[in-house]
């Protein structure tokens, strides 16, 4: 009875405690390793120094500036690439002739890692904003286009046959048939492309940039400031987690809307 009453009085749910167990254990191990100096400080700094580095970067305004530049590039590149990818994928799924002409080249280009285009884009556009936005747009384009294409191809053919019999125009067909049937899969493609776009952007900033989270980590490496590098790693992970969690929430909301 005492154990049960104690469990009922816990302010944190049991599942939340389970989720926190692994991060807290890793934090404790991190503190133990750095205090015992089992790893040189040049390779692994203490959590205290990482927190101090966050305060230092925040007071100087550098953290906000790098974060703002990275997020601006992410959303400009992602939305442009996702919009074109969605239009392209849906049209390729709707029109057989477009699929015949475009699918082979599309499937070939989507196999090439986005990072492989970085040297070529740097030669063409330099290290200015255009290069970063284009590389993010490329990373976003292909997952969304593939999701749109596959979802349209998965719609039962009798839907289109009925629409053809009643001579339904293209826009009402897309609005009333294609969009409701493809929203879940397109959202999955958007979620994957957003996560991929963020990773590609940070990699591009590591290689060639004058600002951004990736450039902040590269500067920390050059200055032997492992604390700043770790700050960048944590921020990259937190933003990636927030983006992915946000899209998961949106997918669940859209699924309930469709069921309702």
TrEMBL record:
Chief localization: membrane
GO biological process: alkanesulfonate transmembrane transport; cellular response to sulfur starvation
Organism domain of life: Bacteria
Keyword Plastid: no
Membrane topology: Multi-pass membrane protein
Localization per Swiss-Prot or TrEMBL: Cell membrane
UniProt xrefs under PROSITE patterns: ABC_TM1
Name assigned to this protein: ABC transporter permease
Species per Swiss-Prot/TrEMBL record: Candidatus Methylumidiphilus alinenensis
């Amino acid at each position: 009875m005492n154990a049960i009453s104690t469990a009922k009085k816990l302010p944190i749910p049991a599942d939340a405690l389970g989720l926190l167990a692994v991060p807290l254990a890793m934090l404790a191990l991190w503190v133990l390793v750095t205090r015992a100096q089992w790893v040189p400080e040049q390779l692994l700094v203490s959590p205290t120094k990482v927190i101090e580095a966050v305060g230092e970067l925040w007071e100087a305004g550098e953290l906000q500036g790098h974060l703002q530049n990275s997020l601006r590039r992410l959303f400009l590149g992602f939305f442009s690439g996702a919009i074109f990818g969605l239009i392209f994928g849906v049209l390729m799924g709707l029109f057989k002739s477009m699929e015949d002409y475009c699918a082979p080249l599309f499937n070939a280009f989507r196999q090439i890692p986005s990072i492989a285009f970085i040297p070529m884009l740097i030669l063409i556009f330099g290290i200015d904003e255009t290069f970063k936005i284009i590389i993010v747009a490329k990373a976003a384009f292909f997952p969304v286009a593939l999701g749109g294409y596959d979802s349209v191809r998965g719609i039962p053919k009798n839907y289109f046959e009925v629409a053809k019999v009643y001579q339904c125009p293209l826009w009402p067909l897309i609005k009333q048939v294609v969009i409701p049937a493809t929203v879940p899969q397109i959202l999955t493609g958007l979620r994957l492309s957003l996560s991929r776009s963020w990773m590609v952007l940070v990699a591009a900033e590591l290689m060639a940039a004058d600002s951004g989270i990736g450039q902040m980590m590269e500067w920390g490496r050059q200055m032997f400031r492992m604390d700043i590098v770790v700050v960048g790693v944590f921020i990259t992970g937190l933003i990636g987690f927030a983006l992915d969690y946000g899209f998961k929430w949106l997918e669940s909301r859209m699924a309930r809307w469709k069921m309702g």
